[in-house]
Amino acid sequence: MLTVNLVCVGNLKEKFSRDMAAEYEKRLSAFCKLNILELKEQNHLGDENLIVGKESEEILQHLKGFVVLCDVASKQLSSENFASHLADVSQRNSCITFVIGGSFGVNDKVKRAANEKISFSQMTFPHNLFRIMLLEQIYRAFTILNGKTYHK
Amino acid sequence: MLTVNLVCVGNLKEKFSRDMAAEYEKRLSAFCKLNILELKEQNHLGDENLIVGKESEEILQHLKGFVVLCDVASKQLSSENFASHLADVSQRNSCITFVIGGSFGVNDKVKRAANEKISFSQMTFPHNLFRIMLLEQIYRAFTILNGKTYHK
To answer: Nearest by CB to A123, which of B19, B120, B125?
Structure first.
């Protein structure tokens, strides 16, 4: 079974976000072994470069398998293409790690360490909502690949 | 105060979706008069054309002011550009209506009735999550326009 890791900066503060994420985590458990790692936000450091540096350093310690960085400025895929891409990648890798950076993004080391970068939207979303969007798209991908009726 | 209408097909079934949407509705009340109209899904009609036709007919009865259709295949804007565009539109219109179609989309009558179409992503999201994404981006737009620190 494919291992899917999410490495995220920041936790889900509100109950509704945790519940909504938990719903997709539960559904995903039928298709993959999902691990979510929440790293601490470093906003207390004050300076943007320090925050990005420290958060990126932490992220780098947890990158395993094929690494996909979620990056607003990168290429976009349709849900169908994301699904077939996930299928391709999972044929060559038993583990995929998705990275969601903090409010100020990640540094070049993380960008270079990523096997690829994908964007979900030109718009910026808060990290709690983005995590749910990512979980939903991974779940949707598995349902597309397995011919389930969830998609549409 | 600007009136923002959301015309949606389908309701929010899960408590976490309702709670998350309610959070943004509450925050938006500081910036606009928000009305959310939930139209009934017509999936019981079985045939896709019948469903789209009936849902579109209902939508057409509720289009007021400047109409923005959310459509996956249309142009995308960054959050900043969405905000400045919203500011432009609201100078010429006291009411903006956003339309979120049902699972099978809307017909050409609705597309023609819309003043414009925008896309949030090449990916397809479920309607409950998409409604939250739209509410969040409208809220984000107001915070950008009002120089609040929410956006980054």
So the answer is: B120
